[in-house]
Specification:
The protein has helices at about 5, 55-60, 85-90, 110-115, 125-130, 130-150, 165-180, 195-210, 225-230, 250, 255-260, 265-270, 285, and strands spanning about 15-25, 30-40, 45-50, 70-75, 80, 95, 185-190, 215-220, 235-240, 240-245, 290. The chain is globular, with a radius of gyration of 20 Å. The chain has about 290 residues and is of the alpha/beta class. The strands form 2 sheets. It has a 6-stranded mixed β-sheet with strand order 6-7-8-3-9-10, sandwiched between helices. It has 2 domains: about 1-5 and about 15-90 and about 185-294, 3-Layer(aba) Sandwich (Rossmann fold), CATH 3.40.50.300; about 105-180, no CATH class. Strand 4 (about 70-75) and strand 5 form a beta hairpin. Helix 4 (about 110-115) packs across helix 6 and helix 11 packs across helix 12 (about 265-270).
C-alpha cells in the first residue's frame, strides 16, 4: 500500500460517488455508454483517456450541467443524476473547467468569495440593509476566502484583478473558488494544463494535501506522470466506454489502455514488448480508490 493510500482511515473506505450504467447521447452519438465505477471517500480518482473519450461529458453529468440519458449518479447515497447544477453543488459537488471561467474584472479575493455563496443564509433584504446575519456571513466568506488564498500561495495577488493574472495563477484561483463551496467531492478538469514544471509540482503537493484533509477528488488530466503518481486509482475511457480501471500500476500496463493511446496493437507491442499481463485489481486494491460499481 502506498503512503498516500495508507493515510486514509478504514472509515473513509466507502464509496462517496457511485456511477452506474451511465449513458449520455447527443442525437445519434453516444458520448458515454454504460459507464460504471465508484470513487471512495477520501481518495483521488484519476479519469483519463484519449481526446474525445467522454471524460468532460462525464464530469458535466456528475456536476449537473448535462442530464444523463440513462443510468444513475449517487453522491453519499443521494441520487443527483439529472438534478440542476446549483442543486448538485448544494449537495457538495464543486468543479473547475478545462477553459478557465473567472470573473476577470473582479479581484482574486472577490472571485474566491463568489464560491462561498451557497453557504449564505441571509436574505436579499438582510443583505441590502446590512443586517447582522448578512454582515456576519460576509465576514465569514472573506475570512474563508483569505485562508484559501494563503494556502494556494496567492496572498500577494489578493487585490489583483483575475484578468491580469498569469494562466497558472488563474488556475489556482479557480481551484480556490471551487474549494470555497466546502465540497465533499471536487471535480477537476485538466488542472495542470498550461502549468510549468514547478507549478505542476506545487499543484501535485496541494492536491495531495486535500486528500490528507479527507476531501475526495475526481481528476481529468493529460499529464500521465502527474496522474499516475497522485491517484489512488484510475478509470480509463475510450469512445465513451470504460476500458480499464484500478490502481495506477495496473492501468498503465493494461494493453487496452496502451492501444487506446497509440491506436493499434502493434504500437502497444513495440512500447511494451516484454510486458507481463497483470491480473485485474483485487477488491482490496479497488477499495483504495475507484472500483467497479456493484
Amino acid at each position: 500500500m502506498s503512503a498516500a493510500s495508507g493515510a486514509m482511515s478504514a472509515a473513509s473506505l466507502q464509496p462517496l460517488l457511485r456511477v452506474e450504467g451511465l449513458t449520455r447521447r447527443f442525437g445519434g452519438l453516444a458520448a458515454l455508454e454504460d459507464v460504471s465505477f465508484n470513487v471512495q471517500a477520501g481518495s483521488i480518482c484519476g479519469l483519463i483517456g484519449p481526446n474525445g473519450a467522454g471524460k468532460t461529458t462525464l464530469l458535466n453529468v456528475v456536476s449537473g450541467l448535462v442530464a444523463p440519458t440513462s443510468g444513475r449518479v449517487q453522491l453519499d447515497g443521494a441520487e443527483i443524476g439529472g438534478l440542476p447544477s446549483h442543486v448538485v453543488a448544494a449537495h457538495g459537488v464543486a468543479r473547475t473547467f478545462q477553459n478557465i471561467r473567472l470573473f476577470n474584472d473582479l479581484s482574486v479575493l472577490e472571485n474566491v468569495m463568489v464560491g462561498w455563496h451557497l453557504r449564505r443564509r441571509a436574505t436579499l433584504i438582510e443583505s441590502l440593509l446590512g443586517l447582522p446575519r448578512a454582515r456576519r456571513e460576509e465576514a465569514e466568506a472573506r475570512d474563508s476566502a483569505q485562508s484559501l488564498i494563503r494556502r494556494l500561495g496567492l496572498e500577494r495577488l489578493s487585490a489583483t484583478e483575475a484578468g491580469a493574472l498569469s494562466y497558472g495563477d488563474q488556475r489556482r484561483v479557480e481551484i480556490a473558488r471551487a474549494l470555497a463551496l466546502g465540497p465533499k467531492l471536487l471535480l477537476l478538469d485538466e488542472p495542470a494544463a498550461g502549468l510549468n514544471q514547478s507549478e505542476t509540482a506545487g499543484l501535485s503537493d496541494f492536491l495531495a494535501s486535500l486528500r490528507a484533509d479527507s476531501l475526495t477528488l475526481l481528476v481529468i488530466e493529460h499529464d500521465m506522470e502527474l496522474i499516475m503518481r497522485l491517484s489512488d486509482a484510475v478509470v480509463v475511457l475510450n469512445f465513451g466506454r470504460k476500458i480499464s480501471e484500478g490502481p495506477p500500476e495496473f492501468v498503465q500496463r493494461d494493453r487496452r489502455v496502451v492501444e487506446a493511446y497509440l491506436g493499434d496493437d502493434d504500437g502497444a507491442a513495440a512500447l511494451l514488448p516484454d510486458m507481463v499481463p497483470l491480473d485485474p485489481p483485487s477488491q482490496e486494491a479497488r477499495a483504495r480508490g475507484c472500483g467497479a460499481a456493484p
